[in-house]
């Protein structure tokens, strides 16, 4: 359920003393619509409070001469130039932001060269960005700021029968356009500036769904269907998109490092659909450095996303430093910055983790300009604007200003920590749906909400197969939070973009992957003297790294199978390590849930780790019809071509097991369910009907007739007559039960480890030839080095390069797509001992 806050105009505000229009704040609470599962309901909050703070003032002066907020008129008033952080505060919710107060607004321009909005008369989707240049001052304010939605610029439409601007600046598309129409903007009766606008009906029927590898289109509702769609490709780029799709599909289903996709190839339909964009590449919402220093080149995202002190990880990364001390003032001139920061009551700040090299790089974490947005079909973006940050979760308490003002103490530290949250959460590699292209009624800011009404899903809903009889296949990809749909999460957006990015977004229902892994963004200023606009080269060619695209897609598609990232990007314990509920992701366990004993002992209970009990199988098949009660037993129906193998099992009097298909709507499979309605063991094959493709199973206490189509019938793989083999080897499990410690050969979790983990030596056990393939319990997952656990030392979910999926992740993908492949999986892909 969604319950967040939307602040209008946004969270990175600007005022100028020469602007006559007041700065008015409006706050909305957004929740799921009670009447339409595709929409959210926004309700304006009648009363809220705003707390200001001057982070760049000297300690002791940070609560003086602050802006004020009138709760009746909701107008912000300021008399002192400078940079201010603020908190919008409700009873149990808050959102943080920044306000910069300038003396004069000198010029403005649209931050888009053109923009596309959705045909949706009741709702306004696209929000054109508007940027302004301000008169320089000595208070460290930015020369260029984002005044989108501030109402400083009056917008009117030259074609009100097609596009209508709202007072807040969003555009309602009321009729689809063949050619762009203009909206005009004026500032205080100045000369109008024009912006071309296109209106697109995203939900209309389109026969654009083309085959790439179609195994069984008539059975598409039962199949796992992958669809590749385009973003940031112009019409002239269509052939290159087709080439990327063809090579990615081939690599996914033929390269060993991408198994088990190849093992399951005949259980997938693969389609593609091309939707041309007006401009190539996508919106990079983050700011980039526009000057070079020895530590950070020009064109790197802000904050710099690599280690500055590459040879010594005892110093902060730039992202860590910015999250603790904020961003520099324009033309930062202050000296002895570590000493200044030490005296500012900053959250967990340690001056010894800052060196001169890092300080010099930090001063360059700024630029004059702001990148123009790109006019792409779906409105994807990389990173996030400071302005468009989301609110905290409903159970996060606001922090009141300290009663003693700028006096050091716990109250001041808590308040400062809250406001400095503004500087966190901007990851330049993470994709999202640009909130300036999607109405807030259909798309939320956090990437983990499903948002089934977003423009990508709206487009998919109208896709018909381009081959007669043109079935409507698109709705198969629409997420359903009440029922499991096999094709949920099988949407892959190939993004024509050089910058490094790849993400599963919207609760892993959409995967986006760029064509390359560039770290430096190329840009030009329109005028190098006044720098009014910061643009990327409009016709820049995007070189495709085909291997990287396939690796990224294979990894990110894993999220569609409910697999979490297993890599580490931060040292120490995860914020969620103490949770008493386990992760809903099938390949990650939480310390608080699997804990044994006290926190200090850091022991774990293997019996609570959900993947250790996964059965390895000698032979398996899936039921293609529900279980049926017949005289003498229960009847199962499988693929006729597999019956010869089962006849051999009958001749051996092999024990047969049944397990129901039990998958939640979002794809969760673990922990495996138990009980007579879920699993039944020790059955025998009484008879086989080859013509009908059926077998009758007999045995004591026959299972209830609730095993539906898709359930699994299997013969367990055993080591001896009464010892079924599991995903974890017996000797490894004995070791885990004895030590109650993870298997990492290096137990240090203070720093992130990006490499595969080796295992400790286990007496009497021969490890696999590739030691990192060993299945057990390893610490370090879900982006943290500590408090989160994963099944193996290495996996494609940890390293999307040359690594393959670990056996547990392979097992889970096979179990969802075609459990009839479990026997082959155990035989070929279980890690072999030396």
Automatic annotation (TrEMBL):
Give the organism the record lists. Answer: Actinomadura vinacea
**Looking at the record, which segments are called Disordered?**
740-759
Q: What is this protein called?
A: Uncharacterized protein
Q: Which domain of life is it from?
A: Bacteria
């Amino acid at each position: 359920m969604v319950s967040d806050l939307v602040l209008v105009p946004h969270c990175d505000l600007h005022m100028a003393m020469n602007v006559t229009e007041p700065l008015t704040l409006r706050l909305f609470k957004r929740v799921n619509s009670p009447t339409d599962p595709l929409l959210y309901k926004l309700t304006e909050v009648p009363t809220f409070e705003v707390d200001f703070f001057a982070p760049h003032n000297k300690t002791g002066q940070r609560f003086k001469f602050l802006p004020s907020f009138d709760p009746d008129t909701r107008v912000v008033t300021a008399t002192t130039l400078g940079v201010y952080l603020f908190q919008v505060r409700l009873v149990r919710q808050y959102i943080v932001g920044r306000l910069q107060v300038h003396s004069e607004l000198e010029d403005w321009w649209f931050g888009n060269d053109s923009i596309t909005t959705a045909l949706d008369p009741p709702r306004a989707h696209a929000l054109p960005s508007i940027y302004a240049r301000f008169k320089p001052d000595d208070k460290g304010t930015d020369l260029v700021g984002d005044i989108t939605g501030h109402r400083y610029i009056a917008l009117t439409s030259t074609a009100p029968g097609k596009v209508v601007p709202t007072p807040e600046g969003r555009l309602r598309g009321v009729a689809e356009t063949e050619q762009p129409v203009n909206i005009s903007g004026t500032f205080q009766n100045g000369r109008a500036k024009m912006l071309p606008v296109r209106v697109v009906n995203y939900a209309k029927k389109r026969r654009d769904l083309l085959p790439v590898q179609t195994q069984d289109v008539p059975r598409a509702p039962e199949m796992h269907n992958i669809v590749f769609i385009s973003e940031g490709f112009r019409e002239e780029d269509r052939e290159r998109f087709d080439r990327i799709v063809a090579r990615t599909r081939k690599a996914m289903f033929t390269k060993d490092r991408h198994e088990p996709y190849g093992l399951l190839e005949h259980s997938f339909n693969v389609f593609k659909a091309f939707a041309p964009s007006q401009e190539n590449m996508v919106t990079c919402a983050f700011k980039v450095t526009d000057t070079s220093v020895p530590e950070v080149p020009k064109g790197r995202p802000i904050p710099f996303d690599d280690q500055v002190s590459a040879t010594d990880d005892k110093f902060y990364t730039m992202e860590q430093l910015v999250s603790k001390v904020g961003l520099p003032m324009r033309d930062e001139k202050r000296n002895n910055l570590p000493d200044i920061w030490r005296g500012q009551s900053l959250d967990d700040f340690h001056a010894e983790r800052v060196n001169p090299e890092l300080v010099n790089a930090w001063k360059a974490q700024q630029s004059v300009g702001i990148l123009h947005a790109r006019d792409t079909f779906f409105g994807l973006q990389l990173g996030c604007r400071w302005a468009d940050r989301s609110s905290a979760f409903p159970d996060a308490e606001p922090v009141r200003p300290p009663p003693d003002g700028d006096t050091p103490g716990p109250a001041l530290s808590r308040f400062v920590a809250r406001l400095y949250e503004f500087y966190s959460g901007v990851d330049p590699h993470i994709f999202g749906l640009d909130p300036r292209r999607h109405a807030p009624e259909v798309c939320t800011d956090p990437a983990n909400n499903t948002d089934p009404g977003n423009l990508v899903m709206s487009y998919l809903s109208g896709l018909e197969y381009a081959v007669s009889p043109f079935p409507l296949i698109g709705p198969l990809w629409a997420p359903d939070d009440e029922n499991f749909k096999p094709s949920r999460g099988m949407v892959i957006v190939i993004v024509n973009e050089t910058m490094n990015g790849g993400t599963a977004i919207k609760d892993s229902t959409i995967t986006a992957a760029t064509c390359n892994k560039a770290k430096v963004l190329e840009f030009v200023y329109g005028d190098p003297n006044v720098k009014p606009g910061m643009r990327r080269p409009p016709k820049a060619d995007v070189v495709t790294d085909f291997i990287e695209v396939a690796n990224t897609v294979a990894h990110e598609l894993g999220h569609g199978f409910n697999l979490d990232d297993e890599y580490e990007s931060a040292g120490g314990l995860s914020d969620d390590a103490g949770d008493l509920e386990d992760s809903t992701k099938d390949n990650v366990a939480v310390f608080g849930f699997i804990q044994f004993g006290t926190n200090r002992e850091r022991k774990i209970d293997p019996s609570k780790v959900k993947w250790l009990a996964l059965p390895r199988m000698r032979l398996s098949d899936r039921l293609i019809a529900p279980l049926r009660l017949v005289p003498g037993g229960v009847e199962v129906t499988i693929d006729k071509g597999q019956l010869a193998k089962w006849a051999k099992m009958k001749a051996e009097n092999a024990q047969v097991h049944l397990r129901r298909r039990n998958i939640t709507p979002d794809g969760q499979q673990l922990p495996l369910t138990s009980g007579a309605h879920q699993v039944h063991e020790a059955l025998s094959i009484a008879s086989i009907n080859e013509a009908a493709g059926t077998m009758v199973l007999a045995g004591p206490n026959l299972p209830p007739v609730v095993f539906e189509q898709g359930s699994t019938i299997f013969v367990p793989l055993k080591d001896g007559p009464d010892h079924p083999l599991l995903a974890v080897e017996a000797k490894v499990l004995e070791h885990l039960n004895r030590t109650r410690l993870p298997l990492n050969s290096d137990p240090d979790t203070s720093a992130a480890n990006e490499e595969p983990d080796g295992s400790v030596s286990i007496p009497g056990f021969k490890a696999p030839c590739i030691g990192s393939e060993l299945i057990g319990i390893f610490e370090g997952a879900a982006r943290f080095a500590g408090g989160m656990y994963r099944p193996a030392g290495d996996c494609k979910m940890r390293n999307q390069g040359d690594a393959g999926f670990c056996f547990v992740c392979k097992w889970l993908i096979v179990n969802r797509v075609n459990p009839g492949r479990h026997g082959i999986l155990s035989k070929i892909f279980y890690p072999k001992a030396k």
